[in-house]
Specification:
The chain has about 250 residues and is mainly alpha-helical. The chain is built from 10 helices and no strands.
């Protein structure tokens, strides 16, 4: 099998399980984070007044990634950007908004969302390994996605791809989104991600203080976690039991 076909097949497989495999990385990060709590001397910020600020910094990085996803999904048409799992979907080529500055804004957003917990681990080499893993992991997914788009849209896609970078944004090329922003689409597709960030950070915080036998929890993050979980459950109930969100459109 030629390398091109092999990379594409790997990307197709990774695309199907892209929401599951990073969990392994997260579990490793949690173990390393707890290690810094048991052995504070392994991370210079641990047990200093700056520890809480570092935690908020890591949360901000994850929220930056979430913001990129929200902006991207909120301005894109149906059956393009989202959380489709089993196969690539594209009825049109997005060339405005986030897609005018970078070809894969959702994966860029995912990078920052996962970078937050990786930073929180307090382990430099784990952070390096995370970046390397992400590069190899999503490079293949992006390759498979671009092969799909090239075959489906031909020169329409390749002409756009030649002008827009794959992963590092070029903000000089920004073009205003063609579609108005839709909060309904965000509620439908990104509500799990919103809750997920605060669940992860709350778990880190609770587990760390439990290991240290302390109770000075970060209640701000914990309260936001509870609120986003409640909001998530309410939205799930509305989507399952009513047609309200469908009636309001995407």
């Amino acid at each position: 099998m030629a390398l091109q076909e092999e990379l594409e097949q790997q990307g197709i497989w990774l695309f199907k399980y892209r929401g599951k495999l990073p969990v392994i990385v997260l579990l490793i990060g949690i173990i390393l984070y707890l290690q810094t709590k048991i052995y504070p001397n392994t991370f210079f910020i641990e047990d200093t007044p700056y520890e809480i600020y570092y935690e908020f910094f890591c949360l901000t990085i994850s929220l930056l990634g979430l913001g990129i996803r929200i902006y991207t999904v909120g301005h894109t048409p149906k059956n393009t950007s989202g959380r489709n799992r089993n196969e690539q979907i594209a009825e049109t080529i997005n060339t405005s908004g986030s897609y005018s500055v970078v070809r894969h804004p959702l994966y860029l957003g995912n990078f920052f969302m996962w970078m937050g917990p990786a930073l929180l681990s307090g382990n430099f080499w784990f952070l390096v390994a995370f970046c390397f893993f992400y590069w190899i992991y999503y490079e293949r997914i992006m390759f498979a996605e671009e092969q799909f788009l090239r075959r489906k849209f031909g020169t329409i896609y390749t002409d756009w791809a030649e002008k827009v970078p794959a992963f590092i944004p070029n903000f000089k090329k920004f073009k205003k989104p063609e579609l108005a922003f839709s909060w309904i689409k965000i509620i439908k597709k990104e509500i799990n991600g919103i809750a997920g960030i605060f669940i992860i950070f709350s778990f880190f915080d609770l587990a760390g203080h439990f290991i240290q036998n302390e109770n000075n929890y970060n209640y701000f993050i914990i309260i936001l976690c509870v609120l986003t979980i409640v909001m998530n459950l309410i939205m799930r109930y509305i989507k399952k039991r009513t047609a309200l969100l469908n009636d309001m459109g995407d």
